[in-house]
Amino acid sequence: MVVDDEEIIVDITSELLRSLGIGEITAAMDGKTALRMLDAMREFPNLILCDLNMPSMDGIQFIRHLGERQVRSGIILVSGEDSRILHSVEAMARSYDLYVLGVIEKPINLAPMLVLLNSYSDAGKTAKLVAAQPISDEELRAGIESDYVVLVYQPKADIVNGKIRGVEVLARWAHPTRGLLGPATFVPLAEETGRINELTDLIFRKALAQCAEWRAGGLDLSISVNFSVGNLHWLDLPEHILACAAKAGIPPAKIVIELTESHVMNDLKASLEILGRLRLKGVQLSIDDFGTGYSSMEQLKRTPFTELKVDRAFVFEAANDPAARAILDSSAALGRRLNMTVVAEGAETEADIALALAAGCDLIQGYYVAKPMPGNAVAAWVKEWELRQPRIT
Description:
The chain has helices at 7-19, 31-40, 59-68, 83-95, 110-118, 122-131, 137-146, 187-193, 196-216, 237-248, 268-280, 296-302, 322-337, 350-359, 375-388, and strands spanning 2-3, 27-28, 47-51, 74-79, 99-105, 149-158, 164-175, 179-181, 222-227, 255-260, 284-290, 307-310, 341-345, 363-365, 373-374. The protein is α/β, with parallel strands linked by helices. The protein has 2 domains: 2-128, Response regulator (Rossmann fold, 3-Layer(aba) Sandwich), CATH 3.40.50; 134-388, TIM Barrel (Alpha-Beta Barrel), CATH 3.20.20.450. The longest helix has 21 residues, at 196-216.
């Protein structure tokens, strides 16, 4: 479906799509017409190309209605507007859990269109659909008791010499009928129901056990574990973390507690006491998804973070988006000024690596290095990685 109020643009876009092998094309001249057509369809179209500046209902309003309808089409945003407007609308669409392939500026050219169309997959649509269906409170309770949590690990590599310095621990939920589910299906529920301490403790203990197994085999890696601000109400948390680490034989300096920057610390006194005491004991603290929240500078000023993770949106988009590159550069510069280790998340291409290096990042994490993997695969993978690629740059 092509949604655009300019007939000549609809014709050009349709002809371009036909040249790429797409045969069935429906057109609508504004958002309201497109919605009526979508509501009358038995199945959503595979792709929707949507202009932004249209009469009656503009493309931004149209995107909201698509989100409310949970439309599972691949979406390409097209406009002659400022690129920052386009990327802002893209972020809005993703917040509705829509399957956004990307943005194209007018006039439309064949090359960027082909790149986005090649990124389309039914698997991507399915993944979005699964992520939108959280588990129930009863499933959460039973799953924590029966240990339905599965951990995978994503390596973090030194951007200069390629050495693997550590891993981030990522939790999955082994659902009996739906397979492995991402954290969005169970972590928010754990926070809402007050089970976040149980869940985090389960993840942390399993990660420590795996780290101890690696160390016994001669592999010395740090482990980064995501904690919720909901965990920062337990004043004895530092003692608990240190006791668990001592039992597993893991030095505190090898433990990195990651806190998402966009989450607000409601009980500031308790949070700062806990975080300060953790640092006093040698545990590392990381501010995750940096640049996506509302109080980044305040968080950095008052909390003794040792690591800054630049959000993936500013890493993998930096090569094509000047605004993203500016945020990557300034975030890395800020981290260096504060003597923090700077991690570039979401690095997928050589261009991402080059920009992260130029910005002054210390570590990279993303598909360029490796996808998340089971704990029993890490040691062999590290050996293979360091044999075939001792240096990244």
